[in-house]
Design goal:
The protein is mainly beta. Helix content is 12%, strand content 44%. The strands form two sheets. A five-stranded mixed beta sheet has the order 1-3-4-5-6, with no helix packed on it.
């Protein structure tokens, strides 16, 4: 019985560790397919879709900068929503005017950066190659 209890404790700890808790204190990276829990609200965020990758490659001149669109699954206190975030081509973390936040279930979610940036010499091969830099903050209720 002790072995089963120990095994369950190890498995629970391993599963809980996969969610990598983070706080609302600033931007954080989330790899494709990864989930994180934002504390203390226990907001679960999962990067689960690459919807569009049409950003102009960094080594090409394009008539349009293109854009990237990703999907996140958010779960909080019984609410579950799928959110779509968009980032224009060539936008970086410091280009605050280019960011397009989405407000839902009491939070503001912003995609600040999506790596890797397309390049004709080394294009991303799989969705799992991507990681998103996100900022999530609580909306202030008045």
């Amino acid at each position: 019985m002790k072995k089963i209890a120990l095994l369950l404790l190890v498995l629970f700890s391993a599963c809980h560790g996969l969610l990598n808790p983070v706080s609302f204190e600033g931007p954080f990276f989330l790899n494709f397919g990864e989930s994180k829990i934002l504390t203390p609200d226990n907001l679960r965020v999962e990067f689960n879709q690459i919807i569009e990758e049409s950003r102009c490659p960094g080594d090409v001149l394009c008539p349009w900068e293109g854009r990237a669109r990703i999907g996140l699954l958010l779960q909080s206190a019984g609410d579950t929503v799928q959110v779509e975030l968009t980032l224009p081509g060539f936008a970086t973390q410091s280009d605050t005017l280019a960011h397009q936040p989405v407000d839902t279930i009491g939070y503001r979610i912003t995609l600040l950066q999506l790596d890797p940036y397309p390049d004709t010499q080394r294009p991303p091969q799989r969705d799992s190659d991507y990681r998103a830099l996100l900022n999530i903050s609580r909306l202030v209720r008045r």
